[in-house]
Specification:
The protein is about 60% helix and about 0% strand. By secondary structure, the protein is mostly helical. It binds iron/sulfur cluster (3 copies).
Length: about 280
């Protein structure tokens, strides 16, 4: 009985995703939603199952399963632009389809529940950056976060300009923008990782999506918390954190609190199981 209880989380996650999958399939009369959300639900549930089994690559497996699906299948094969430009594009055309639903669920309203789980378990940009050698940053955060507002504004201006100039064949342009945008993200991300000796430098300073993710994840229901009765202030959790979060502070204002990607490195490394 205890064993079954241990595995209730992956089961619950699977049920939630299946409910979304079936609801969207029936309401939108589109089989794609059944396939899409079932696949993501199965991938996430498998990851949680492996995490419970203490498999050390559990997070990376989910990241690759979901990230590659989004990048290769949805992006390159189905020509669905899931970058932020794609979000603006579908928003302006008034189409509430894959990209807008994806942003609403994973990046705007979802973070109220699961914080920046997207960044830890699904993002195809970070999926590559996490292979680089600087898993733990050499230095704590620099004050460069303002750059994200520039990239955010640039993405919005780019798509607005296309609409204002009444440019034709927008679908094709958006697909090219998807390829160019991804190459730019990977290139910049890899260079920054080596310059700052920090795999996640791109996430911390450049990524425009954090303009949505950070404020919403401030209110996240799911957070890593510290049991002060068990904690011995050894500092190990902060030393292994890729995002420089002060995870021993339980307040919502903790240092870099909205940077937490729920990777669970702190939890795995705490010698007292205080997290
Ligand atoms: S911050 Fe941006 S690039 Fe980094 S994981 Fe999140 S969405 Fe991906
Ligand atoms: S690793 Fe655990 S015991 Fe050490 S400071 Fe962090 S929470 Fe406390
Ligand atoms: S190590 Fe802990 S605090 Fe840091 S990002 Fe991962 S889960 Fe969040």
């Amino acid at each position: 009985m205890k064993k079954i209880k241990e595995y209730k989380h992956p089961f619950v996650i699977l049920i939630v995703f299946e409910t979304v999958a079936v609801t969207l399939w029936l309401t939108k009369n589109n089989l794609f939603y059944l396939f899409n959300f079932s696949y993501i639900g199965l991938s996430v549930s498998l990851g949680i199952f492996l995490f419970i089994r203490k498999y050390k690559h559990a997070r990376r497996i989910v990241q690759l399963l979901v990230g590659l699906y989004m990048l290769v299948y949805l992006g390159l094969i189905c020509h669905e632009n899931m970058q932020i430009e794609g979000f603006w594009y579908y928003l302006f055309t008034g189409v509430f389809e894959a990209a807008t639903i994806h942003y609403a669920v994973a990046k705007i309203f979802g973070p109220l529940i699961f914080g920046r789980g997207w960044c830890g378990y699904a993002c195809w940009t970070a999926m590559i950056l996490d292979f680089l050698p600087y898993k733990v940053p050499a230095q704590s955060g620099r004050k460069l976060g303002w750059i994200r507002y520039i990239t955010f504004a640039a993405s919005l201006l780019f798509v607005s300009a296309l609409f204002l100039a009444k440019v034709g064949n927008l679908e094709r342009i958006m697909f090219r923008a998807f390829i160019a945008g991804n190459l730019a993200y990977y290139g910049t991300g890899i260079i920054l990782a080596f310059v700052f000796k920090d795999n996640r430098a791109f996430c911390k300073y450049i990524c425009p999506i954090t303009v949505f993710l950070k404020p919403m994840s401030y209110f996240s229901l799911i957070r890593v918390k510290c049991n002060k009765d068990l904690c011995i202030n050894c500092g190990k959790c902060k030393r292994v954190c890729p995002m420089n979060v002060d995870v021993t502070d339980n307040s919502r204002n903790r240092k870099n609190g909205t940077e937490c990607i729920l990777c669970m490195e702190c939890v795995k490394n705490c010698p007292k199981n205080a997290l």
